[in-house]
Amino acid sequence: MRVYAPTTAVATAALLLATLTGAPPAAADGGPDSGPRVKVSHGDPYADCTIGAVSPDSVVYPGTEVEPYLSVDPRDTKRVVTVFQQDRWSDGGARGLSAAWTTDGRTFHRSTLPFSLCAPGGADFERATDPWVSTGPDGLVYASGEGVDFTKSTRTGLLAVTSRDGGRTWRNLTTTHVDEQPFFNDKPSITADPTRRGTAYQVWNRLDNDPPGPSGIDGPGYISVTRNGGRTWSEARPFVDTSAVPNTQTIGHLIVVDPSTGTLYDFFDTITFADDLSTVLEAHYAMVTSTDAGETWSAPVTVVRDSAVPEVDPNAPTKLLRAASTLPSPAVDPKTGTLYMAYEGADFSGGAFDSVQLVRSTDGGRTWGAPELISPKGVPAFSPSVAVDERGTLALTYYDLRHLEPGDTTTLPTAYQLATLPHGNTEQRTERQISRIFDWLQAPYAGGYFLGDYQGLVADGEGVRAVLTETHSGAPRNRTDVYTVSLPTR
């Protein structure tokens, strides 16, 4: 979910929930220089579900698919699983989460994730949010999400399932952790360890809105681990502490693993609020390291200042957008061990708007270089994702607004871009458009026009595969769809 003053976040239930629908092999053309996009969302498995309304003001957007992520089987890159939200609610989350799977890279089939009451055999939660997926070295697929209740009191639960048949069916539904107010769990992700069969890590932030002492909030990072292929998960425990600085929370925890050494790196944003929780005093990205498969973790190392500014329509700043502000996207070069982190920041616009920025470390995260601009100068850009292919080519995807004309306040022309940097060399950067141009203002509204707090990008052999959300104009019952595209990086 997007970071708000934390007590407001709980009071307004401004979460993200979702499901995904599978799709036939409907292909669509992208922009100049793009490869063929394949639509993976088709139909609505939760169209008849009436569960989840919080108040008469709750608005559900039927037929919307947002906030996708994906995973590729390391043994066969044509075996792909995508996950995303289905039927977004205006005041938090979606009717449910779903998956779409393929064995040929183009023909996607739908399966539902059992993370809400709208799903067959689903967990006992009114809504679901924050879909994530990761595939282990043995082909075992792990999917995670969050179940949420709002009608009686805010209840949040971390959920996980596994698939042994590439996303066709799901098993081992596990509630790894559950809380009620004043606790609020947020932004879980899941990472299958590429060096340890049957091992995966689920991480998130656990916000305490009534901690003991003078602090108004406390938001440490939490972790749960499976070492038997998702049959059981360890008891959730804190692994990033925030109690030393009052009114501090983390968000956006995401683990990447160096396949050469097995070292784990967890990246996140740390945010400190004023005493009344109305303003941010300080924010920075940080990381912690584990060399023993998540048993113990280092002290946090600061990566870079979080310089993001509010995400808005540049021609109509009262129109709020929702993208990936506060959420890091990290990757590790599988050969050299170089660490990269992409994020939204305003360092290159004088604080006027967000661009896509990159930092890197060549010493295992002990020290970090200065921010580098990746998206075009002078153009607002959002939702970066980063991956490194097997040759060491760095790839980044992002939305940008280069097609927006001055004075246009009725539409927000948006396109998704792929930038590639051989061995991270910015001087050899190339870029191509991989989506059509679409109107962001057609997206469901949930604290801002919402395509998702993140999109997905993974290495795909000698290339990358992206998953992204696009909108449709004049289609109130089908405002968005999810597409995937696989592209070489040379």
UniProtKB/TrEMBL annotation:
Record-linked Gene3D superfamilies: 2.120.10.10
Signal peptide stretch: 1-28
Keywords assigned by UniProt, alphabetized: Signal
Record has Calcium as a keyword: no
Top-rank lineage group of the source organism: Bacteria
SUPFAM superfamilies per UniProt: Sialidases (SSF50939)
Listed name of the protein: Neuraminidase (Sialidase)
